[in-house]
Amino acid sequence: MCNIKNRYLGTVILGCLLALGVPRIAYGVEGTFTTYVTQVQPGFAGRSWQDAGHTKDATVITLANCKVNKGGAAYGSSTLSSVSITLYQNGKAVKTIKQKCGTYNFGNYGPGRYYFTISAINDNKSANRTTFLNADPLKVSY
To answer: Global pTM?
Structure first.
């Protein structure tokens, strides 16, 4: 039997649970954004984000539909062998992952201000206008 007193108590308990952050745990990742890159070279820096450390989720960057070209050539006219991404926390490089696009899982480095760079394309680390990367979408979750 449910009376008014029990309903009130249930409402108070639910309100406290919501205020304490139960939805953060239930929804998983703390934040995410999706964008794209067009004709970027090694050294390109992505936008930054603040990880407040509300979850223990890894920082994951996913590049899809990657295409590479040389200066002046059509998108995708060169063969893609690898893209290296470096993750920075509070201005310091914490990890670099090299692979042929896809999902880059950096793990969890705790709270801080983060950004990433495209540190190499096909092992070329120089922004010498010879190698360009296109990826759409580019997704970041943390």
So the answer is: 0.79
